[in-house]
Design a protein that fits this description.
Radius of gyration: 22 Å
Helix content: 40-55%
Distance between the termini: 53 Å
Length: 346
Amino acid sequence: MKLLNNLFSRRKRIVVIGLDGVPFSFVNKLVKNGELTNFNKLINEGDIKRMNSVYPAVSSVAWSSFMTGKNPGGHNIYGFIDRPEGSHELYIPNGNYLKSKTIFEIVGEDKKRVLSMNVPVTYPPRTINGTLIAGFLSPSIDKATYPERVSVLLKKMGYRIDADPWKGREKDKSAFLEDIFITFKKRVEAFFYLWENDDWDYLHLHIMETDRINHFLWEHWERNLKYAQEFLKFYKEIDNFLGEVRQRISEDTEFIVLSDHGFCEVEKEIYLNYSLIEKGWLVLKNDNSKSLKDIHKESKAYSLIPGRIYINLKGRELEGNVKMGKEYEDIREGIIEDLNNLKEPE
């Protein structure tokens, strides 16, 4: 809050652009190669810094931490799936599970106007002093906005909440690429319209399309495969957009571009529950078990994506049998030791 007050005391406005899943090293490489000329201008006029992401380094957790200034223990978002205490039923955490005020609410309480677009974990939209367009968990545009009337404008403009990730799973990525470019174009059109026509002091636009294209085409970029040039073309579109924002910003505006986590090609994955089974920490009711509901009451631990391990704590977990104290600490240390000693199968 003190930082925000300091920013607003010397700047009239703040603009934040979130680029989801864009690595520091990747941006630096393209800048040095002369591919991102506008990004280069921003760096020369300001600065660029590498940041550590949160644990776990996924979008819902990272942007919740950004919005609240707290870690997962403070804001209650631990991943893309979770389970209630005392239950093995799974749910997808959205803004209803976010237990802290967000920067959008805090700024509004200071009588500043907010314009927030597409930030993860902002659905359902909260009441703020300004305009909020929720992100990819929104079921429809009609339910994604505060105030509700903004949805009418967005639908007229052909606005899209998100690109279609199912198209990215197809062997032919042409439809996916077309969808990515159109979704980004419509988001930018709405952004600049609201820039000009909405009253705001703090403006935050989140670009999820960078994460989407990275998930399905990063390998093409790193290995110079079929869609490498289309991948680069999209990032040049991002660069052009940043250049246009830069041109519109006056000297009394603070301009921040940031990402929530990096990206790389996945060569191997570890199925943690399988490892826990091998070491005897996790016991399943039968060989065909596929969900948390099939965990045997003798289990000492289990894992949820991405890489979270829960001790089967008595009083917290369904049929929990591990007592808090020495037993809990011994099991925790034992699991840590087993993980440190994991080796690839020969």
